[in-house]
Amino acid sequence: MNWQRNLNPVKNINISNEKKIFNGIKGKIKLNEPLKRHTTFKIGGRAKFFIEPKDIDDLKLLLNLVKRNKIPIFIIGRGSNILIGDKGIDGVVLRLSSRCFKSFTIEKIRLEAGSGVMLSQLLKAAQNYDLSGLEFLTGIPGTVGGALAMNAGTRWKNIGDLVENVTVMDYNGNIKTLDKKDIKFSYRTANLSKYIILSVSIKVFRENKEQIKERIEKYLDYRKVAQDLSKASAGCIFKNPSGYSAGRLIDLCGFKGKRTGDACVSKRHANFILNKGSAKANDVLKLMDLIKKEVKNKFNITLESEIKIWQ
Ligand code: EPU
Fold it and tell me: Residues 40-67: pLDDT tens digits?
């Protein structure tokens, strides 16, 4: 399956020696970092290196070093749409969370936001300046970069619909700005995977603060009723197959409440798998397999994972 990547488990070697590879990096470097600290699922083994570059030059240097040393590199945002294997990542996990990647500016009806900005912050800032258009993102736990990479959204709208342009860096350290017409956004995906997203320019429109607030509350209420936010999860697990709701199909197969280890299908929304305490990635994968088989069996529909799986 192309949504599963095969990575080697973190080896038991003296990695502090290997840290020297990254001499010159000014940002934070953590060794053997538990990735469950960085995912909304609260699941995931350790990353051999967890690196937060300080600025653009630091990021360029990092890309150069991983390339030269043939170290795999993976980008994580808020970790909200991802399942990381229990054996961890034998490579670098990169997060753009330093100040340089978290700035945003507002100019008339345009927002320019760094990829490390949280969607919730962006929404708040827009609301404060009487700018609307982003409310549908209410309650989606993610960063701007993560949201763009997977064209996050709802039934009503996706973030790609608002984009004017996106500034990216390729893996050779070259920066360019892609115009909206050069980016292909589709359902929960965008053709940006060969780049590191640095920032985005979004077009919004003027509206009264109170009206914006009302709409945000409506979206929040919908989420509270329809979705299960009581425990750690990664949001919807499967994409909706064209013309169907994955949640409804899984529900009709009787999976609500079905448990494997500490991973459990939500009783409220069957496309949510909850971590009831110390679920392992393998518990989730087993549950996903059972669900896929049964939905295929009963409806002849192949469910496709919405969450990214690193293992
Ligand atoms: N339904 C059931 N049983 C369930 C779940 C849903 O019968 O267990 C029914 C609902 O009653 C409704 C229909 O299925 O008639 C659709 O359900 P819902 O309104 O919850 O929307 P969804 O299609 O399951 C999608 C997105 C959500 C997004 C909501 C609202 C996907 C996979 N899911 O959910 O996105 O929040 O619409 O816009 O596209 C996410 O991407 O992580 C996510 C949660």
Answer: 999 999 999 999 999 999 999 999 999 9
